[in-house]
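Progress note, sequence design subtask.
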């Protein structure tokens, strides 16, 4: 069976944004989402986008003033992201999101892993490792946003946003 990277490289990447309804629509959707939840830079201003894809979250976060580090396995999707990022502060990293610690400058204000990326991880242990690492990487009062589909519910129509769960967590641990 093909792995995640092969799946995007060989099949999905050229069509991903189109399948989702187009980049502009998704940028606007996420811009509104972040605005309505008061997500703006107030600490270091560094945001990490795990499984950034073609930039549906990275672009609006950068436009909101964050310095974004966008990590993804897909070279083609990161190339597409960069095509939208002229003048914006977005560093793209082609690597597994599980290695994000190797690419961050220090503690960070915001980590997002949205658009059903977390369900691409292979095991629950990998999810646990990611959450532990994310907790350690966040500044005090930094935030983690996870967005993923509730696969316990039957998909009722073609809307891929149907059944999306968004979890917000704030890091309040004094000792790390
Ligand atoms: C469903 S897309 C979501 C992309 C984007 N966040 C969005 O909302 O459109 C999942 C993305 O995660 C990436 N991905 C999956 N597993 C990954 C991993 N272990 N490390 C880095 N990227 C990964 C895929 O290449 C793909 O771009």
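Output:
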């Amino acid at each position: 069976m093909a792995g995640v990277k092969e799946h995007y490289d060989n099949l999905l990447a050229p069509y991903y944004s189109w399948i989702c309804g187009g980049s502009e629509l998704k940028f606007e959707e996420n811009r509104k989402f972040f605005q309505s939840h008061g997500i703006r830079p107030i600490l270091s201003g560094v945001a990490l986008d795990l499984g950034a894809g073609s930039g549906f979250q990275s672009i609006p976060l950068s436009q909101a003033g964050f310095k974004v580090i966008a990590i993804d396995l897909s070279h083609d999707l990161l190339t597409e992201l960069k095509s939208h990022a002229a003048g914006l502060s977005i560093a793209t990293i082609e690597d597994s999101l599980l290695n994000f610690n190797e690419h961050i400058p220090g503690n960070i204000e915001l980590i997002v892993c949205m658009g059903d990326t977390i369900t691409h991880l292979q095991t629950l242990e990998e999810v646990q490792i990611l959450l532990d690492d994310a907790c350690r990487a966040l500044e005090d009062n930094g935030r983690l946003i996870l967005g993923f589909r509730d696969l316990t519910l039957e998909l009722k129509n073609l809307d891929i946003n149907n059944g999306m769960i968004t979890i917000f967590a704030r890091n309040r641990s004094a000792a790390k």
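The CA atoms of residues 99 and 130 lie 9 Å apart. Work on this subtask will continue into the next period as scheduled.
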